[in-house]
Amino acid sequence: MDFRTNVDNQVYGVRATALIVRDGKIYLCNSASEGIYYAIGGAVEVGETTEEAVQREVREEIGCEVRVDKLAFVVENAFCQSGVNFHNIEFHYLVTPVTEPNTTMVEDNEKRACEWVAIDELDRIDLKPAFLKTALKDWNNNLTHIVNLEKH
């Protein structure tokens, strides 16, 4: 069971995300059907720390073991996707791959490609959450709190 609650058309959750960064690039998943890139991660399970969730999600989604280096961003993220309103508290960790990640993952019965994208090129893609486009380039190595409240 994870930290996610549905009330009417609203989903509330706690998520942990891996920012897999190496040589000026970040490893992202590409949802080709929607044209959206996103970082690997998912809901935190009950009884699990956010660090444990990051390691589990990366292992489950791309078959890779990672070392958790540092919590970079805590994000209050409210947005609408496919007609559903989300409000997540998200923990975004910088991680280092210990093993090589798979080049594809399967999510919601859809096979999705994964690839290394130059951090300097993030503004050219549709990246979710969008704050990563600039926050990674400008990050000062200190934990940063971000509030993203998109209008529904």
TrEMBL record:
Q: Which GO molecular function, any one, fits this protein according to its record? A: hydrolase activity
Q: Which Pfam families match?
A: NUDIX
Co-factor requirement? Mg(2+)
| Xref: SUPFAM superfamilies | Nudix (SSF55811)
Q: Where is the Nudix hydrolase domain positioned along the sequence? A: 11-142
Which of UniProt's keywords are assigned here? Answer: Hydrolase
Superkingdom of this protein's organism: Bacteria
Q: Which InterPro entries match?
A: NUDIX_hydrolase-like_dom_sf (IPR015797), NUDIX_hydrolase_CS (IPR020084), NUDIX_hydrolase_dom (IPR000086)
- Give the protein name, as stated in the record: NUDIX hydrolase
Q: Which taxonomic lineage does the organism of this UniProt entry have?
A: Bacteria, Bacillati, Bacillota, Bacilli, Lactobacillales
